[in-house]
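Sample entry (284 residues):
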Amino acid sequence: MAALLAWILLAPLWLAVPFVALTFALAAGMFPGTRGGPQPRPAVQALGLLACVLMEWAATAWVMLAFPWRGFRLALGEGDAGRHTPIVVIPGLCENALTLSILARRLWRRTGAPVLVITPRRYFDSLENLAAAARQQIEDWLRRTRGARVDLVGHSMGGILARYLAQPSQLGERVRSVVTMASPHLGSALSVVAIGRNLRQMRRGSAFLESLNAQAPPETVRIASICSLHDNLVLPWNCALAPHGENLILRFRAHLTLILSGEVAERVAERLSPRRSLPPAPKL
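Predicted structure, serialized as tokens:
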């Protein structure tokens, strides 16, 4: 029994190896030379890439380990309601509140604001249905925290849902800020191997993304996107550049690594500051 339990707990470590290897190989093979910008010295580049792969392996193992706990619930700091704008963290594909618990706790400690992580009712559904389920939880959270507005933070698909919810037809002006991390705003080439409607809607050129990107968010909503030159799931990486708001580009951080990075949590918290003014979107 002990051996079986150990195997179950360690399985994500081994299963993550081929997944990470395959995604980095696809990124290098399908889109070579898309990193852009000045390149560091060869030794720095090699060490940075090695660290990037190892961190992504650990992050992938963590996501796989947390995968079965879809019903896990996490709400922090309800006692701080009324003093800060509540934060809602929206998980990406196959992520849940346990997956994003480290990020959520860092944001809570850094900002002092109440933090809710959305509990996904299912992993595969249309983006519209996933957004509707998230909206219901957000509205319940605002009632409990007596919040007039909310900050939305989304990783990967969660960032797409956050932008969708910031539309005037959804939560609109009740959203103060949206910060996305490694979100496929312009789609991803990997979505061609879609096994769910939400993945098909994140293909490059999909009707859902074309419609979302054609609409500017309300002027009262601040948008920021954090992405990485070394994203191994949003391919090519520049598909994670948001068409509206600020784009912060990192190096040597892969797709899932962002949710475990203390540096990224700090960057997110900075962009949720009420004193921060975000620049307009660049022309893409």
